[in-house]
Amino acid sequence: MIIKNADEIKQVLENDGVIAFVTDTVWGLGCLPSSEKAVKKIYEIKKREPQKPLILMSDDIYHLLEYVKPIPKAGCQLIKKYFPGALTIVTQKSDKTPDYVTSSMPTVGIRVPDNEVFKEICASVHVLATTSANLSHQPSAKSYEQAVENMQGLVDLIIPDYGYLCKGLESTVVGILDDEVRIFRQGAVII
Question: 67 with 55: CB under 8 angstroms?
Fold first, then answer.
């Protein structure tokens, strides 16, 4: 175990809390997708526009599958090639994904970061509703120090990176609609 306070993290999340954590790309904010109160808190913390959805992240694609409709073949091929990694796939959501996570859109972004600290955070809660750890329209946090600077006093817990640093470039975001791949944001993964 890398993380020293796994029980505290789980407790914070289960009590409608918001955490800041390292991923393989940039620092993130997250909460349980089942907590509407915590999701609202993320929007307030970031001063995020309500029409901008959060994405779902996990340590394993299998935990995310129940939140989406069957993923088209093109999406499955990308998952096999790039998960875990710096790729977010936007696909049709299932009934399990709350509208308050996706800004009432019919789709949701899913991602499996390649970072050991993040994997341990997810070990007990499996799935987090997430976004980057910064105020809207500000640069994403790329270090523990920047995450503290951006989020101290706003989130319930900032988890150290324990030396598992992020690379500092956001994930590539692609949409899989009707088995076609559309790039929404070019990031760390080149497709």
Answer: no
Joined together, the tokens standing for residue 61 give 């694609």
Spans of the chain, pLDDT less than 50: none
CATH number for the domain that contains residue 179: 3.90.870.10
What is residue 161's predicted lDDT score, i.e. its pLDDT? 97
The secondary structure element, H or E, covering residue 173 is strand 172-177
pLDDT of residue 179: 83
In a domain, 123, yes or no: yes
In three-state secondary structure terms, 21 is strand
Tokens standing for 186? 């070019």
Backbone dihedral angles phi then psi of residue 126, each to the nearest 5 degrees: 70, -55
CA distance 67 to 110: 9
Q: How far apart are CA 107 and CA 114, in angstroms?
A: 23
Domain count, the chain: 1
Vertex 19, ends 87 and 92: CA angle to 5°?
A: 40
**Domain carrying residue 60:** 6-185
Residues ≥6 apart with Cβ < 8 Å to 91: 68, 69, 71, 72, 75, 107, 108, 110, 175, 176, 177
Backbone angles phi, psi at 176, to 5 degrees: -115, 100
Give the span between the Cα atoms of 67 and 80, in whole angstroms.
18
